[in-house]
UniProtKB/TrEMBL annotation:
Pfam families: HTH_1, LysR_substrate. Keywords: DNA-binding, Transcription, Transcription regulation. Belongs to the LysR transcriptional regulatory family. This is Transcriptional regulator. The lineage of its organism: Bacteria, Pseudomonadati, Pseudomonadota, Gammaproteobacteria, Lysobacterales. The keyword Transcription applies.
Length: 292
């Protein structure tokens, strides 16, 4: 009969999330030998390793990937049992690992987290910002509890909940010839120099959808940060589709101009991503209620 302890499960989960025994030991306030022993004892009881060892890093193998969500659920249910067992009203605590794509993480993080953090200050928030593909992958491998992304995501294991509407604008420097032209039409964009986000970005997907409605142009640069694109556009290096929420400051100061393009569909839906098979503890459920 297995006798895997909560400490061993905790060490296993933290190594899976952070990639090393040292990092797990630091998170759990253990010595590194103690964390190593806990993992070794769990693997001994399972009679199988749960990690592949690669150049000092530990990466989940197939068995580990299967067991990770179960270990996370056991730890969360144990914490929930302790919270409810007192029969008293106990402040929500624990940790939430939240992923946000770049537009959300850099420009709408207050809207995403503000109400929850103010109401539940004892819950630790670990926020990861990346592009939509990166966040979706992290939700799928259980390294994130929930994600908030800009782009369309389709996967049988992911639940997608609409959150907010979002709009992109075609932006140029004030000196750009198109900024001085009235009554813009699609043909005016022939041969234009475009600055795009990287592949995997939802902004890239929306931009390519818009470019398909225009005459051919030239991609002169790919950048993985919205602020870098703003600076490049302001310097006259090209034009770009950028989230309205990200350029409001530059438009107000006249650093950028938003071109009027009613013939382009630049609307999109921001969405919450959840793993369909993940246990949703109290903190996650309350967070989801706060963002509805």
């Amino acid at each position: 009969m297995l006798n895997v302890s909560l400490r061993q499960l905790d060490v296993f989960v933290q190594i899976a999330l952070h990639g090393s025994v040292r990092a797990a030991a630091e998170r759990l306030h253990l010595t590194q030998p103690a964390a190593s022993m806990a993992l070794a004892e769990m693997e001994r009881q399972l009679d199988a390793p749960v990690f592949d060892r690669e150049r000092g890093r530990l990466r989940l193998n197939a068995r580990g990937r299967e067991l990770l969500p179960l270990a996370q659920e056991l730890l969360e249910r144990h914490a929930e049992f302790g919270r409810r067992a007192t029969g008293k009203t106990v402040a929500l605590a624990g940790e939430l690992r939240i992923g946000a794509s770049n537009t959300v993480g850099n420009y709408r993080v207050g809207e995403l987290l503000g109400d929850f953090v103010r109401a539940h200050p004892q819950v630790a928030i670990r926020l990861r910002v990346g592009n939509t593909d990166d966040i979706a992958t992290a939700v799928l491998d259980h390294s994130l509890d929930v994600g908030c992304v800009e782009g369309p995501v389709t996967h049988p294991l992911l639940e997608v909940r609409p959150w907010r509407d979002d709009t992109l604008l075609v932006c140029a420097s004030p000196e750009h010839p198109l900024a001085k032209k009235r009554g813009l039409k699609p043909e005016h964009f022939a041969g234009e120099r475009w600055i795009l986000r990287e592949h995997g970005s939802a902004t890239r997907v929306t931009t390519e959808r818009a470019l398909a409605q225009l005459p051919p142009g030239e991609t002169v640069m790919e950048l993985d940060q919205i602020e870098a694109i703003k600076q490049a556009v302001a310097a006259g290096l090209g034009i770009a589709c950028l989230p309205q929420v990200a350029v409001s400051d530059a438009l107000a100061t006249g650093k950028l101009i938003a071109l009027k393009t009613p013939f382009l569909d630049l609307h999109r839906k921001l969405s919450m991503l959840l793993h369909r098979e993940k246990y949703r503890g109290a903190a996650l459920e309350v967070f989801l209620q706060s963002v509805t």
